[in-house]
Amino acid sequence: TLTSIGDGVITTDVEGKVVLVNPVAEKLTGWTQVEAAGKMLVEIFHIISERTGKEVDNPVKKVLETGMVRGLANHTILIAREGTARSIADSAAPIRDTVSGEVAGVVLVFRDVSEQQQLEEELHKAQKLESVGILAGGIAHDFNNILMMIAGNLWLSKMTLSEANNEIWTLLTEAEAAVFRAKDLTQQLLTFAQGGSPVKKVASLKTLLEESVKFALRGSNVRPVFNFPKGLWLSEIDTGQINQVINNLVINADQAMPEGGILTVSAENVPFMERVLHDPLSVSVPIKEIDYVKIIIQDEGVGIPTKALPKIFDPYFTTKQKGGGLGLATVYSIITRHDGFITATSQAGRGTSFFIYLPAAHNTEEAEEATEKVLEKGSGGKLLIVDDEQQILDVLYKSLTAVGYEVVLSADGADAIEFYWQAMQADQPFEIVILDLTIPGGMGGKETMARLLEINPAVKAIVASGYSNDPVMAQYPAYGFKAALSKPFKFNELRRTIEEVLED
């Protein structure tokens, strides 16, 4: 029976000398029955504390001293003969003579709980992440509304100036950039804690890369070098999530070059056929018949060990002493949700290169710049805006009326439905409705939109929210919306979205 059970079993005599070692105990300790017999238990059963690294008291000795069953403390490590370390759980009990009742020896039963302990730790981490996610979701809406108010007042301030007033204009522009960095931090927390589908829009990877890399390397002795071709395609991305990807990779590169160095950031268009014929890095990935933009981030750091390279995107895997092992796992998750893929190469002492492939939108940076200039003139239009924050309503009213739109405000979806119906009855309908997704204590954007669709199936509406991880934001067409805006949004982004919906 002892040689057949799944736990390790070692028995000793009253002096603590080994009598029996079953096959499982042989495997866990590295000692055979023949080699171990007659040796003191401490010679073959070497245990230490996982937390302190110090030797743990021999349980057999305790049993012989007290005549009572003893168990090991949690986080006990068994060091096998060849040096392998395993977390174990065990207990030691006295073997009593059936006639006299005297202690005749000790039986030690133990098992490898390394995998169980790891699963428990990962579950604990997941539970902590869930708590962070709940907290992040709770504050994201209110925090982004505050940022929206700040950003809106910065718009209005800039409207009263011209770019000729360089100093004040520059200060306001820098303040506006800081607002959107704060938004990205909120989004990073949400993505890290809960994931969430990306809220995509066509954007310039060149601009995003330059801004993100420079920001991440502030105060660093690492110098970025950019290499972008003319006519680089845009991509349909969630800018907050891709910014998080870039930040993670750049911070890793910075830490890999403690003495400083060059970080080379480049991008290129990769048409489908060129990828099939000439891009060896992507052949192992299922090929989709689409074009990509490839981003390359290359450092001159210490590199990643060859054995570790296949595991770098695994959750909780890290080569850093203080690393949590979630940075690259989050990067991989974000890129995958964008229908892209990521690979890496590395050489010890010669640096690491990451290659990110994102689906291309075939318009280019030059087309994006032209679009910005077109928006300098407003086309007008009658707008109904619903938001529970009066300051946001005030900012949107002042800024949009200043560029030619007719704007009506509402703090609740129920009132907005009444305004919309009355405008239709008066043959002066609203051309666009902008709905805040969350109205505490009132009718939010999702429910309001369902009612508006009953009134007018052709209603044109934009959903806005400070909580971009809501499924409605990522899948807005399924709820009848024409577009989505994540708060805080830029004034040009708002105007562009309004114009695109009007023209649709």
Unreliable spans: 367-377
- Describe the biggest sheet? 7 strands, antiparallel
| Cα separation of the termini | 78 Å
- Approximate shape: elongated
State which percent range the strand residues make up.
Answer: 15-25%
Strand tally: 19
- SS field, number of helical segments: 16
Average residue-wise pLDDT: 83
Instruction: Provide the structure class.
Output: alpha+beta
Percent in helix = 40-55%
Radius of gyration: 32 Å
What does this structure look like?
42% of the residues lie in helices and 23% in strands. The termini are far apart. A hairpin with a 6-residue loop joins strand 6 (85-96) and strand 7 (103-112). The strands form three sheets. Strands 1, 2, 3, 4, 5, 6 and 7 form a seven-stranded antiparallel beta sheet that branches. Strands 8, 9, 10, 11, 12, 13 and 14 form a seven-stranded mixed beta sheet that branches. Strands 16-15-17-18-19 form a five-stranded parallel beta sheet, with helices on both faces. The chain contains 16 helices and 19 strands. It has 504 residues and is α+β, with helices and mostly antiparallel strands. The chain has helices at 23-29, 33-36, 41-44, 59-66, 114-159, 166-194, 205-216, 239-256, 272-278, 327-337, 365-374, 390-402, 413-425, 445-455, 471-474, 491-503, and strands spanning 8-13, 18-21, 46-49, 70-71, 76-79, 85-96, 103-112, 201-203, 222-227, 233-237, 261-270, 292-298, 341-347, 351-364, 382-386, 406-410, 432-436, 461-465, 483-486. The relative contact order is 0.08.
